[in-house]
Specification:
heterotrimer, A mainly alpha (416), B mainly alpha (263), C alpha+beta (180), A: 416 residues, mainly alpha, Cytochrome Bc1 Complex, Chain C, 2 domains, two-stranded antiparallel sheet, 1% strand, B: 263 residues, two-stranded antiparallel ribbon, 7 helices, 4 strands, extended
Amino acid sequence: MSKSKFKNPVVKWIDHRLPVFSFMDHELNHYPTPKNLNYFWNFGSLAGFALVAMIVTGIVLSMNYTAHVDYAFDSVERIMRDVNHGWLIRYIHMNGASFFFIVVYIHIFRGLYYGSYKAPRELLWILGVLILLLMMATAFMGYVLPWGQMSFWGATVITNLFSAIPLVGENIVTWLWGGFSVDNSTLNRFFSLHFVLPFVIVGVVILHLVALHRFGSNNPIGIDVKGTQDTVPFSPYYTIKDLFGLSVFLSFFAAAVFFFPNFMGHPDNYIEANPMVTPAHIVPEWYFLPFYAILRAIPDKLGGVLFMFGAIAVLFILPWLDRSSVRSSQFRPIYKIFFWILLLDCILLGYLGAMPAEGIYVILSRIATAYYFFHFLILFPLLPYIEKTKPLPISISEPILGGGSTASAFAVREKK
Amino acid sequence: MINHSSSFFSNNIVKLYLGLLIIFSSNLSFAAGDKISYPQLNWSFSGILGTFDRASQQRGLQVYKEVCSGCHGMRLLAYRNLKAIGYNEDEIKAFASENSVNTINDDGEVVERPARPSDKFVSPYPNDKAARAANGGAYPPDLSLIVKARPDGANYLHALLTGYIDAPADQKVPDGMYYNKYYSGNLIGMPQPLYDDGVEYADGTKATPDQMAKDVTAFLAWASEPEMEDRKRLGISVMLFLLLLTALSYFAMKQIWAPIKNQ
Amino acid sequence: MPTYSKSKNNKDGKRDFLIISTYAMAGIGAASVAWPLIDQMNPAADTLALASTEVDLSSLEEGQAITVTWRGKPVFVRHRTPEEIKLAKEVSLDEMRHPETDEERVPNEKFIVLVGVCTHLGCVPLGQKSGDVKGQYGGWFCPCHGSHYDHSGRIRKGPAPTNLEVPSYKFLSDNIIKIG
């Protein structure tokens, strides 16, 4: 390996002094990847693609946008009407946010199903949750920028969450606003932060990748790679598979951008912000709905805020909440059922977040919220003590069931 | 057993992909559930291949100009934009010059000059407060984005414009309010705007309220989404490109993975 | 770890062709996305709509000049005196850096219309106001690096390489010009 693998003299010269080519060759070309990954492993690279697409279209939009309460709405409409291809770039950015969240949510549930957060990938998972948090902050502030009715009232409601903090809450809200209501100062700082946070996300994504490449990808059966027979080089096997996945993703994305660009938006955001009139029924963007439902399920202001942030906080400590030593749900018959219940629970929460907070919806929200926390705080730690896991295979390449020899310690304990 | 997922995908992925794409591409507007339901019209511009009807749009502009523009502005639209619905430069210039805009002359005085094609549509009121004051406190909204700013906008607008009926006996209608069966709460500040032969169409089309409502909606739908025809046209090419790329990359992937799968 | 060997799959060229064309197509797709991102920096439709402007010269008296804004730049219009016209027409072209006759530059000899941007480095020359320094040749003088322009806006002395630019314009009537 020490003799240069590059033939091009310029590449060779540079690589000797700055081994970027060796690095890329090692991490993107030869990088050994489990050969049994299924299509759910496509969503990491798709998320990366979405991030880049958002940054590129975002930079371009910022060249035409004016962050001022008197001009913001009209400058966005100027982008839609007068700027060359402006409508295309803006619709890509607008729908891109939704698709970014779709991809990331699937990526997260992939991790939950196959136990990708377990040792030794705890930090990899935590960095991922951090990315999710940063994405939420970025998306929230981005939604304020067009200065429509939903922008304005969304900003008002969400920033008011901080007023629930005892003693200093009101001061924090005033500080966030830079005034006594959401106004020009708020819009300016949100624009600034919306511009810069994506680059922070890029930084965390790089750390996420460094952590990933330390032990390599998890895989559908969740057992460690035993040797080179279990892996294939990333290129060309996963480059082509990622390209295929990207094509499929882009087909859906393009269908949304070109034919249903406002499907995931809200009509009220085409009405310019009016601080004197609140729309009859305000809802956040769909990707916040489950959290919004949790917020409203709790009848106490501070409690609601705490539970909402708690819903993400439990994700940070998940690697230690889950006591099972078996990663993949394929070998955890009971957990597998609960996984699907959790998924349905989150979808139900999303639905409830969009419904008015009254009658049956409130009761259902409370049940769904209770289940969410039950799943993380009780089920994850305790289930391994009662669940009998299926025997694990010996290796990825030899799908021979290894009897009880590699079965989980808990399963053995259970037998006794 | 280990490779169950990949075999599932390899056999059914094409069906799955196309199936999902069709579901996704079919009209999704059912999701916009609203309490009042309006008649669902067959607009020329709906669907993924829909385009605007130029003649209807031009009639719609006439309705806007002669009926709506007394109270409703369209501040995001410029006169030059009318080129897209089939007017030439001289016609646009003449249309624009019927309105006047304020400008400051060299002596610093505010004077009026005729509007030019590059000017935005002149609003009927100098500001929101004047608009409110002149209409008994009800603000006549700007119509530039009205079709995008209402759920199921085109159908809603058509329904609203044709939804004026006599109030039921038990419904008290206060002064300055009117009864409309499609308006949320039924009491609307806008009097019925469209009557038979309210405008005289140059092309001989009979100006019924329903026809005028359709025409002005077609015009306003375009004003909300002037990029729509370009968008759909480009969308078709992009979709074809992506379908081809998806097919190619699928077979290339099968090709590259063949030695691994056959081990 | 199995490595991917081309030779194994190269039994028939069709198969490699498939892979190459897939990546080529992806490349074409990526390249065509670049165009909207570049084109958005070109002048937008509303900017282009303001690309021409009309000026009324009826109140401009002999010897006077006005400056109007066109495409974000100053445009000089000067109503020349008969004496100035004579000077501009009679001068020999031999000694000029950028020889152009006055007739080529000024269709209507009374009114000269120029883009008021020095061709050296883009400053706005003096000479529009009555008290301004007009340079050795009586036309315009650029204070930045000392370029002297004559009554026809031609460069006569100083670092500027070419004459002041004449915008495209036409007389809509005797007293109204449309620039652009």
